[in-house]
Amino acid sequence: MKIREFFTYFLLAVIALFILIPIYVLLATTFKPLEEIGISDMWKLPANWSFSGFIKAFQKLGPNLKNSFYLTIPATIISAFLGSINGYVFSKVRFKYANLIFTLILFGMFIPYQSVLFPLIRFLQSIKLYGTIPGLILVHVVYGIPITTLIFRNYYSEVPDELVEAAYMDGAGFFKTYSKVLFPISIPAFVVVIIWQFTNIWNEFLFAVTVTSSPDKQPVTVALVNLAGSQVVEWNVQMAGALITALPTLVVYVLLGKYFIRGLLAGSVKG
Amino acid sequence: MKKKNVIIGIFVILPSIIAIAIFVYGFISWTVRVSFSNWNSFSKLLRGVYKFVGFRNYERLFQDTRFQTDLWNTLFFTIFFLFGAISLGILMAILIDKGLKGSKFFQNIFLFPMAISFVVTGTVWSWIFAPGTLPANPQGLNLLFQKLGLDNFMWGWYTSTYSLGKFNVALIAVIIAAVWQLAGYTMAMYLAGLRGIPNDIIEAAKVDGASEWKIFWKIKMPLLKPITLSALIILGHISLKIFDLVFAMTGSGPNFVTDVPAIYMFELTFRSNRYAMGSAIAIIMLLFVAIVIIPYLVSSMRGEK
Question: Per the database record, which ranges form the ABC transmembrane type-1 domain (chain A) (predicted)?
């Protein structure tokens, strides 16, 4: 019994070590002065702790970090409301072909975005939103419809139909039923959707790199890749950039991990 | 009263339906059209004249050695990545499911890479796998091997152009990074599955004297089959589309050893303005994903009612 427990802990620790190695390297490199990157050992902690890499990365990525917030926050909020109202319709208002339409919408979640990218860019150019943050917001809201609708639909199908029927009986209309009955009990689903969308939009790269062309409009993920530059890579700046890029979603994960997992499982359809 | 609500409801979702109709199905058709055209230069784009050339772009692609490499890379990447992420995910789930003290702590560690961008993962792992100049000045993991006296383990990682059959060994570095990122996801799926197994089945088996090992293979694994199928499909479609990780970590690599269709598509479309060829790659990627996803979507919709 004791041996078995020890063995379990041993395996857990080995896997944890594998998962944590990049974090160790990331932190150790971030806080080294550039001289130490060249000559000394990347596996050692810094001999002289230095914030110069971090400061340099922050100066370079700061504007892009702001772009990412300008992009992610509105896109997340709009997605959540859209998903909520769609989820209400797909779970409580029965109509013909609802399931078929929903499946067709859901397919949009899995397509490689490469297959829509070129027309999308031409479209954004024609409505003068190409290369702008509002253009990216539009893109993320539209391609977020499948997953946000799915999560809310699954959540509302757990709510008894009688609750909605009763509201209709009492003379509440479509919107009043939503605002007085469903919306107030939707907080957990909203939290899941907001975390899911925030994380995905923040971390997204393909749309970010193709829809925004000028560096001052780019989200932080694109700026991080560009940070590598063409000549010698300043690994301390590079790692600091990675840390800065990862920090907001890591904070969300640490604070709201439970809901993060629910979102994750919802993304595998049969949640 | 009820009928009115149905009409309002349909009106409310109409914008979403129209948006998906245009942004998904409309744009896909547009890409298909471009992929059948000769829109392969910027001047043609400016003049807006291009004509239908049938499957010529597709034929050219399949004869293109770089694209052939991409397909082999995708195949090998998918096989090893799925195997790695699923087996590590199952192992994590089993260990966590034992419910020892501190399980929650380990679970949180195993899952956190999912919160991070592929671009960040690629950046950090590209530093870890940076080979340095061998044999005198190793870097990253090679440096660690040197310190441990394991000089024989030092090699070029993602800069290596060696291949075993059609498998470019440089992919190993990318596969490890991808497994690192997504094994936690598989773990979460299996944990949800394990916790859904009714306890009395397990208890009954224990009473019958079945060993833990036997309970796992004969009872739990068969019950977890749907989870394995979901994991294969979800991870499979991610791997067929993989882009950011490779882009941030290695790019195409020397001789395209780590090139994937998504990278080639990106370069053709956004670096060389060869829209028709880029679109053809995009449509091939879509077909691969559709083969995996459509049966899955249809069956899960049927399963509901």
Answer: 65-256
